[in-house]
Write a structure and sequence with these properties.
three-stranded antiparallel beta sheet; alpha+beta; 16% strand
């Protein structure tokens, strides 16, 4: 038994932490760096590295500023990032749907 052709997963956001960050940012207009770090449960260095990669892909925008005298960084999804996330999630759902259909078919053949 062979599986169907693989749907187009986005390799830029396929890694679980990148996907988690993208999904978190999809739920808000903009998030402070610390909030993203806490939600993703990773180090500052990991958030910085992932955010840079996602920014280079055009999926997020990094905005730097200050609150009082303290520097702050905010992250937000770009429209391209939202589209990429939606397509990636649709591809994941297609994989699930195809696997479930194949499993049901195999189960029916075993009867």
């Amino acid at each position: 038994m062979t599986g169907p052709a693989s749907p187009a997963l986005d390799q830029v956001i396929h890694h679980p932490t990148r996907l988690t960050m993208m999904a978190f940012l999809a739920g808000c207009a903009e998030a402070e760096f610390a909030a993203v770090r806490e939600y993703c449960q990773v180090s500052d260095a990991s958030v910085s590295r992932i955010a840079t990669a996602l920014e280079e892909a055009g999926y997020i925008k990094i905005r730097k500023g200050a609150v009082g005298r303290r520097p702050r960084t905010w992250l937000s999804l770009t429209s391209a990032g939202r589209t990429a996330l939606q397509r990636h999630l649709a591809a994941l759902q297609a994989i699930v749907d195809a696997a479930q259909a194949a499993g049901a078919e195999a189960s029916d053949q075993d009867r």
